[in-house]
Amino acid sequence: MAVNHTDLFPPSAMQAIDAAAIANGLCGRGLMERAGAAVAAAALRHWPEMKRALVLCGPGNNGGDGHVAARHLSAAGVKVERFGLAAKAGSDAAWALGRFPGAVADLALCRPEAGDLVIDALFGAGLDRALEGDVAVLIERVNAAAVPVLAVDLPSGVSGRTGRPTGPCFTAERTVTFAAQKPGHVLLPGRALCGAVEVADIGFPARMLTAPAPVSINHPALYLPHLRGPDAAAHKYSRGHLVVFSGPLISGGAARMAAEAGLKAGAGLVSLATPPAAVMAQAAHVTAVMQRSIDGLETLEGWLDDRRLAAFILGPGFGADATSAARARAYAAAVASAGRRLVLDADGLSAFTGHGETLHAIGAAIPLVLTPHEGEFRRLFAPLAEDKTLSKIERAQAAAARGAAIVVYKGADTVIAAPDGRAAVNVDAPAWLATAGSGDVLAGLIGALLVQGMPAFEAACAGVAMHAAAARRHGPGLTAEDLIAAVRPLPLTAA
After folding, report:
1. 494 is in an annotated binding site
2. Is 414 annotated as belonging to a binding site?
3. In this structure, how many other beta carbons lie within 10 angstroms of the beta carbon of residue 235?
4. Where are the alpha helices (H) located in 187-223, listed in sequence order?
5. Is the pTM for the entire model greater than 0.70?
6. Is residue 128 within 8 Å of residue 161, measured between CB atoms?
């Protein structure tokens, strides 16, 4: 089986797959043997000069993987010491322990030293409660010793479902997981606590690796099939006309950045819909971007008779006062009534605080993309934001269903979710992307892909990928203006 490195499975789904595989004739001990061998191979490959391998073995299958890894490392000439908890009699973990007899010392006796490698095979992804007692003390001791940790499946103490620590947890330099990654490997802070993640193929049939809801890492295969190639007969209108609503005189820069990003991302034509008092100020700053003076709802509704207007962006610098918020809701409803696509960002999102039913009605009528950062998400979907039991993926999925919209829940681990349960997690955004105006640029990228005919979920995934790629291309010291300049077209095929 070729390992799919992009699909994400919550621990409960992976446990069900494991049970189904064994029920269908796959040998559980064989799976454990291959898992432990993969861990030992990773240890030898990345720490060939280790003085000792301190293998911490839990009572379940994760601990069984650790016993197998210890046996392989010992056979390779590594000095191995095991510490752990008793395996349940008759279990596969007890079988693995029996194949490598010898002392398994109490966890309280483990004293890591310089030159040691700690292999954390205590609990893995299946545990979702705080670790206490000797385990918690040992975690603190290992972390303080500053020795490398190789985690089996997931660092003990990190939730495989949410990526959040449940209490004390290991900080691993590397993690070996099996068959597929879990959400905890890619959601923060789990991604940082896992270190580099290796996915080992231990023999699960590909037909069994079917997620209950399609959740994956954001990757080109999600969106490239929906990207249109260049057409020699194309003209600016066939490439799509994108409109960005501009705000008051003092805050027009955000809308300009969204508009300019839209041009760089391939929209054939981009216009600013500008209040009359701000038209001259915008004209002093834009060249390729066009303008239309919009002095109210009646003017907008008249312009919407032009069917070439394909998609709209509403929110960047639009205004956050009550009058602006009411105008934003009215403009969004007009766009929806005209059957156009819409991206709501920044002030356009805040305008719908307390107006969830109106937002859902708009999303039910047209392709709608919402791009909240953490604060905007909290204002718009307060009950979801306050529910500490949910992962970021689960929050985004629930918000997408409530808003009947694609939700781009921004951050270093941006989650893109659709009302039908699809979700993708972006994992390659650099830290320097956290800069003023970068969200306006993202809105422009997504809007440009919408006017070029991409479905909303795929356009959001592609826009997030373009955004991160542009930031990586530029490097540290990035400003929003730099980000726009660094935008490049998407490749037509995956690398």
Report:
1. no
2. yes
3. 9
4. 190-194, 220-223
5. yes
6. yes
Q: Is 413 annotated as a binding residue?
A: yes
pLDDT in tens, 173-197: 999 999 999 999 999 999 999 999 9
| Residue 266 known to bind ligand | no
Contact criterion met (CB below 8 Å) for 215 and 4: no
Asked whether residue 92 is marked as a ligand-binding residue, the answer is no
State the pLDDT at residue 88: 87
426 is in an annotated binding site: no
Separation between Cα atoms, residue 29 and residue 96, nearest integer Å:
8
- 439 annotated as belonging to a binding site for a ligand: yes
Question: Is 124 annotated among the ligand-binding residues?
Answer: yes
Q: Of the candidates 317, 329, 283, which has an alpha carbon nearest to the alpha carbon of residue 439?
A: 317
Tokens read off for 405 = 């919209």
Strand partners, 293: 274
Q: Residue 411 has which token pair?
A: 């951050």
CATH number for the segment(s) 11-211: 3.40.50.10260
Query: Do 11-211 and 220-486 share a fold?
Result: no
310 is in an annotated binding site: no
- The pLDDT, as a whole number, for residue 1 is 37
Domain 220-486 falls in which CATH fold? UDP-N-acetylmuramoyl-L-alanine:D-glutamate ligase (3.40.1190)
Instruction: Tell me the two tokens of residue 35.
Output: 């898992």
For residue 198, give the 3-state DSSP assignment: strand
- Dihedral of alpha carbons 232, 237, 238, 240, sign: positive
| Alpha-carbon gap, residue 57 to 83, rounded angstroms | 6
Domain ranges of the chain: 11-211, 220-486
Asked whether 7 and 210 are in contact (CB, 8 A), the reply is: no
Is 51 known as a binding-site position?
no
Quick check: 443 and 258 in contact, CB under 8 A? yes
Mean pLDDT per segment of 10 residues, for the chain of length 495 residues? 71 89 89 97 98 97 97 98 92 94 94 97 87 95 96 97 95 96 97 97 85 86 87 78 94 95 95 95 93 96 96 97 97 98 98 97 98 97 96 98 98 97 97 96 98 97 98 97 94 65
Q: Is 373 annotated as a binding residue?
A: yes
